[in-house]
Design brief:
single chain; 168 residues; alpha+beta; Beta Polymerase, domain 2; 6 strands
Length: 168
């Protein structure tokens, strides 16, 4: 749900003195609104997709440490991922605005589809089988993703809730 995860104040530029080009400022209110819109859109989209069994937010947005150069990391557990890794029709519905796929990469059972929105904001959708959330045994990589900050967004079967509970 928008605003449900920790997030710094809209225009907080923590650590940015204005003199160091290597320091990336914290998010603006506009970027937070954009991320909230994507989160809302992906939840509503997931509810209409019969093979989407769970959606979670991970990374800096989930842990409350986003920066202006942070992407929005979304894990999508599906019964079959072919439609999402070989086609792009889902992008505008899941993101809430038109976007273009700029990268596809396999990470074991998870396939990353990186989407760039018109503003330049990037969303990374990781499509994985429901077994990604298995707790017997818990995959070390999955455990790291959950431990680093994770928010369950849509989970009608309780797959992600069970995983989070087993790790935390």
């Amino acid at each position: 749900m928008p605003g449900a995860w920790p997030n710094p104040a809209g225009n907080d530029r923590s650590g940015d003195t204005g003199h160091n080009p290597d320091v990336v400022p914290r998010i603006t209110g506009e970027r937070k609104d954009e991320s909230d819109g994507v989160v809302t859109a992906v939840i509503e989209w997931a509810k209409t997709q019969g093979n989407v069994r769970a959606v979670g937010l991970d990374g800096s947005w989930a842990s409350g440490r986003p920066r202006m150069d942070s992407d929005l990391d979304v894990v999508v557990l599906v019964t079959t991922k072919d439609d999402y890794v070989t086609r792009a029709e889902w992008v505008s519905l899941a993101s809430g605005s038109p976007g273009r796929i700029v990268k596809t990469k396999d990470w074991g059972p998870l396939t990353e589809r990186r989407v760039q929105l018109p503003s330049g904001f990037e969303d990374e959708y990781g499509f994985a089988p429901t077994s990604w959330a298995s707790v017997d045994p818990i995959d070390p990589g999955t455990a790291q993703v959950i431990s680093d900050g994770f928010q369950v967004l849509y989970d009608p079967d309780g797959l992600l809730a069970k995983l989070v509970q087993a790790i935390r």
